[in-house]
TrEMBL record:
It comes from Paenibacillus forsythiae. Residues 6-247 form the ABC transporter domain. Keywords: ATP-binding, Cell membrane, Hydrolase, Membrane, Nucleotide-binding, Translocase, Transport. Residues 288-326 are annotated as: Disordered. SMART domains: AAA. It is found in: Cell membrane. It is a peripheral membrane protein. Its EC number is 3.6.3.-. Belongs to the ABC transporter superfamily. This is Energy-coupling factor transport system ATP-binding protein.
Amino acid sequence: MAVPVMEFDRVCFRYSDGNSGGSWALDQISFSVEKGEFIGIVGANGSGKSTLAQLMNGLLCPHSGRVTVLGGDTSDKRCRERLWMKVGLVFQQPEQQLFEETVFADVAYGLKNMGASPAEVSSGVQAALRAVGLEPGEVGKLAPLALSGGQRRRTAIAGVLAMKPDILVLDEPTAGLDGPGRQSILRQVKQLQTDSGTTVIMISHSIQEVLALADKIAVLEEGRLAVWGTAREVIRQQLGRGASSFLLPEWLQVLRRLRELGVSAGGDAVTREEALEEIWQLVEGESNERDKAGSLHRREYSHSPSGPPNQVDRLPASGQLDSARL
Ligand SMILES: Nc1ncnc2c1ncn2[C@@H]1O[C@H](COP(=O)(O)OP(=O)(O)O)[C@@H](O)[C@H]1O
Ligand SMILES: [Mg+2]
């Protein structure tokens, strides 16, 4: 049987300065991660995502329960001392922590601290920059401040990748980036997981972002693990428990709203394709109904010069459905 690379067992954590109102930032969290898996962690602001990330590499230790990472208990100091190399944590807005004079020096920082030789540092930095889609020859000598916001974010991620961590934890790596910037980071992180077998744990405030990428997804709510499972399991559970709409992808928000409006779909859609199919069938069913109603009205109103009143509002075509408006 596969040995988990990370295991949370009934973990509770509370900040001691009382800012969290005396309540648990994390409450009875249990889950485990296998080697090479891609885990998505989603939840609203303040649900405990960043706290969870810091428990993963021993920056924080649980008040009760146990966190085991790569075979060691993070409450053990010797275990924590080696974890900073093995579990690469990319903080929220990591670009704010770039401080060296050049991009090369910044990406090299952690690798140097690990005791790598100058040749290892040079090749490691180049590989890490390429892995995040930056050309070392173009950006290496630039000051981080000369880069765009998206490039600075990639530079910070490269600094962690250069250390070749066994487990990569990314805290909202796409927040604040534009659509193409987001897509390219997601693609590169997924590629890293499939090419090098790195275990990836990615935090996001949008379930949509992790649905297609993650093997398993955790939904945090007020410090509790509300839902845990594969994408399909998580969506089914979310729908079943009437979870808030923002934790559903747009296409399921549309279906749910249609059902609330009394337009019955009766399907079991989970993926985007399934949902589009279900919406399409609804639209077709609705226009068949309209046609029937229309021919009825034509018969009833055939004597009227103005024709039948248009009583059946037509649903927009699936591509035009606007979840915000619905
Ligand atoms: N350094 C801190 N000191 C005190 N309370 C904190 C600190 N960081 C986070 N919290 C509190 O812990 C809870 C979880 O926060 P956090 O893990 O940052 O959530 P998320 O990343 O999901 O937004 C929140 O109630 C937050 O206010
Ligand atoms: Mg956070």
